[in-house]
User: Fold Pleiotropic regulatory protein RsmS from Vibrio rumoiensis.
Amino acid sequence: MTTEHQPSPLDSAPEEIKLAVDLIYLLESNEIDPNIALEALKIVEADLKKKLQSQ
Assistant:
């Protein structure tokens, strides 16, 4: 019996959607409190913006 990969809408989704889905899965599977996750994401956003400005 052969298992064939059924294409999902995620396969053709933009990279930012794929990353968002991965991050949501990571946070949920590790039972991270949503308030903590949001605060951490603010820190990540600030860090990434700083990196973009220095390029």
In short: The mean pLDDT is 92. The two ends are 51 Å apart (CA to CA).
